[in-house]
Each structure stands twice: as C-alpha cells, then as structure tokens.
Design brief:
The chain is mainly α. It has 12 helices and 4 strands; from the N terminus they run ααααβαβαααααβαβα.
C-alpha cells in the first residue's frame, strides 16, 4: 500500500513539472513558427497529453477489458470538460475566440454525439471505428488548413523565447514526464482502489480516467496561469476529439469492443458536459469563474452518484 501511495504522489509531482516544460516548449514553437497557440493546443499538445489515454485504452482492449478501455475515454472526456476547464477558469477566466466557439468546440460535440449513437447497440464494431477515424482525419485536415490561415493569431505575451532545439527539448521532456507520471499515478491509484474493493467499471470511469487526464489538467491549468488560454482550451477540445475519434477509432479497428458496462448516464453526462462548455463559451466568449465552479460542482455530483451506485 505504501509503495502505491508513493507512486501516486511522485506521479503527480512529475506530471505537474512536465506540464510546465511542455507548455513553455509548445508556446515557444508556436511563436517561432507563427502558428496560432490554439492550433498547437488542438494538435501537438492535445495528441501528446492524450497518449496516456491511448496506451491505457489500447492495452485494455487487447486484454479483453473493453469496458475499461471505453470507460477510460468517456470518463476522461467528462473530466476534461468539467474539472479541467472548471479549474482553469477558477485560476483565470478563460477567454475563447469566436473561431473556437463556432468551429472547434462543435467538433468535440459531434464526436461525443457520434459515440452516443454508435454505442446504442452496446458495441463499437470495426465499421463504427472506421467511421470515427474518417471523421478524425477530416478534423485534422480542417485544423491544418486553419493553421495556414491563422498565422500568429495568438498573443506573444508571456511566451518564453528560446532556441528551436531547446523548445523542442522542453516539449519532449515535458511530454515524457507527463506520460511516465500519469502511468505511475494510474498504477498506484488502481492498485489502491482494487485493495479497497472498488469495481473495475468504476475504476475505469473515475480513477483511471482521472489519472490519464492528469496531463491535460496540469497542462491546461499551467497554461491558463501563464496567460495562454488558447493553449489551455485547445488542449481540452483537442484531447476530447482525439480520445473519441482517434483512440477508439484505432483501437476499435484492431479490436472491436463491447461497451455493455458503460451506462446511458455515463454517455449522456459526457455529451452534456461538452454541450454545457459550448453554451458557456457563448457568454461574452469567456468561461467565467462562476461557470467553472458550476462545472466542478456538477462533476462532483456525478462522481458521488457513480461511487454510491458502484457494483
């Protein structure tokens, strides 16, 4: 038990430190390449911080625990939209561009709605997964196309100037720390939960989902604290899209999955969380502190219900 607790603490420290390095490196690269920080957040940072979810879901599906694989994605997306955005908004009100509200967030809503519809029959078949991948490719093409149009649309204030090689090294080092730290956290937390008798389904939707979302949480909060709201929001939106379309797309093509253990409540909360984020974004194109507090409160309510009804 003590070793598991040590892994949890060390994992959190490693993730927080790595998030700072990754953010500094990513924003510096964006500034040098004259690419919008929002685009960097939607692509490079989002893909990097989604790697823990990918590894956990992919390996879980291959081992035959597909409920854990899908539960990890569903739980992570709920965590992203409610806890990460909520916490970042408490740190500093999140300013969101019109482009993000009108084009980027709708992609996250579409991805969530697709998973709900495809999961009606309780399975993610290879055809379902191929459809998810097709939409993911469309998202990436759209994002790259937007990057060519939005040159240097983000603010350069607060961005550390560094050489290309140093910025790249910071990004890679930060990413490595995020992945290793999150793995330590997940392994330790899962072991503790098992010892306490918590079911596999609840572990997937709560502890594993929260653990694999630590990179997004740390990256977005640190980015928001440094005034890089575009990186913070882009990371959340991009991660939610990557989690559903890329992770379940690739995993489902290789290994069709059953999601019988994921309830309608879980899928509904996932969809409503991103829809609520979208609605909040329309209010002066800002997620205010009170809206962040409301997101966190709703998440706590959902987690409480989940744990109380754990089987």
């Amino acid at each position: 038990m003590m070793m598991n607790v040590i892994n949890i603490v060390f994992g959190i420290v490693l993730v927080l430190w790595g998030a700072g390095k990754l953010t500094d490196g990513a924003t510096s690269i964006a500034a040098r390449m004259k690419i919008s920080p929002m685009i960097i957040g939607l692509t490079v940072v989002a893909m990097g911080t989604s790697m823990p979810e990918f590894f956990v879901s992919f390996v879980s599906a291959l081992k035959g625990t597909s409920d854990l694989a899908v539960g990890n994605v569903v739980g992570s997306n709920i965590f992203n939209a409610m806890i990460i955005v909520g916490t970042a908004a408490l740190v500093t009100p999140m300013t969101i561009s019109k482009t993000t509200v009108k084009k980027d967030i709708p992609f996250a809503v579409l991805a969530s709605a697709m998973l709900v519809l495809l999961g009606i029959d309780g399975n993610i078949s290879r055809i379902d997964a191929a459809l998810l991948m097709a939409v993911f490719i469309t998202f990436m093409v759209y994002t790259v196309h937007s990057a060519r149009k939005e040159k240097d649309s983000g603010s350069g204030e607060g961005i550390k100037e560094m050489s290309v090689w140093r910025a790249t090294a910071f990004f890679m080092l930060g990413l490595a720390c995020l992945i290793v730290g999150s793995n330590l956290f997940v392994n330790g937390a899962t072991a503790v939960a098992s010892l306490l008798g918590v079911s596999e389904a609840v572990i997937g939707l709560t502890i594993v989902a929260g653990g694999t979302s630590l990179p997004e949480l740390a990256t977005s909060v640190v980015a928001a604290r440094k005034g890089q709201c575009a990186i913070a929001m882009g990371n959340v939106i991009g991660s939610n899209v990557f989690n559903i379309l890329m992770i379940l797309g690739i995993t489902g093509i290789i290994k069709p999955m059953s999601i019988s253990g994921i309830t309608w409540l879980d899928l509904t909360v996932m969809l409503l969380s991103v829809v609520l984020l979208w609605l909040f974004s329309f209010t002066k194109y800002t997620v205010a502190r009170w809206e962040g507090a409301l997101l966190i409160t709703l998440f706590v309510g959902y987690m409480t219900w989940l744990v109380m009804h754990a089987v």
